[in-house]
């Protein structure tokens, strides 16, 4: 009986909140009428996007309430209302989610009265279930109906507020447009970096190498010793140019990934870091044994870890870091943690923005948790098929 009372009380709270939202929706009818009249008169068309935003907030509150009751989040799929008044009005009218929210609002005026049915159930339930459960030791029959009312309210809200496939497709297209723009920007920045490294490093050394070889050829007949020294310097420059080229190649795609796999490459990266790095692996194997993620996914994970460790060594003040690699059913998960001072800011030149763009290009996600005082935790999920 106590469990039944607790569940009925919880459902009652849910229905009371629903009743309050229903009352607010009834008041909102006035705003809808004013907006409809003003929009029909054209001069008040600017009110339409603002009213749609209000409906979105009301529907969003209902989504959160129903999601807390059912334990399943109801997704949103809204197009942003930005630009001029004309553009905002056009977006508000054409967005499929506007029709979804308006349809729910109209239905909510009807099924929002469900909490009223709860009022007679409490006194009836206390009497009937008190005797039925307390004396006869049977299962309660009246008070559970309150939970069913809450279930019904949440179910109808979930069905009506779930975005249509067209709305989900529109949001997905917008996400892909932004991801594509970020990937193009990241690609352009990478090309500029490679060009800068080649121009400032390798090209300069090769020019100096050519000049020294030319001078050595001129001095060879008259001063063989000086020519030999110039050739020795030229050999040194050639070796330095090769080293620079290796660095450029590693920045494009580290050969160690091909040779050792992601686990071996990350362990080598940890060994060469200025920090004391602990690497833990879950579901992955070193080398070429076992399944491996696609090359692009491994490269993204490697660069994320390298950038994270570099940032930690430069800015965090920490002396150690932890790297965790895990194979998930839907992809690869990476977590880098340091016990530094925290406060990482993607706009502060720490490379987080470039990291996010690289991951977003693979339809992945980056979560950065870095409160002031630390710790800093960077979690990355890269979807792939094993």
Structural commentary:
- This protein has 386 residues and is an alpha+beta fold.
- Helices cover 66% and strands 9% of the residues.
- The chain is built from 11 helices and 5 strands; from the N terminus they run αααααααααβαββαββ.
- The protein has helices spanning 2-40, 47-70, 85-94, 96-111, 121-134, 144-161, 165-219, 224-252, 255-271, 295-316, 352-360; strands spanning 276-282, 320-327, 331-338, 365-369, 376-383.
- Strands 1-2-3-5-4 form a 5-stranded mixed β-sheet, with helices on one face.
- The longest helix has 55 residues, at 165-219.
- It is elongated, with a radius of gyration of 32 Å.
- The mean pLDDT is 84.
Summarize the model shown:
With 386 residues, this protein is α+β, with helices and mostly antiparallel strands. The chain contains 11 helices and 5 strands. It is elongated.
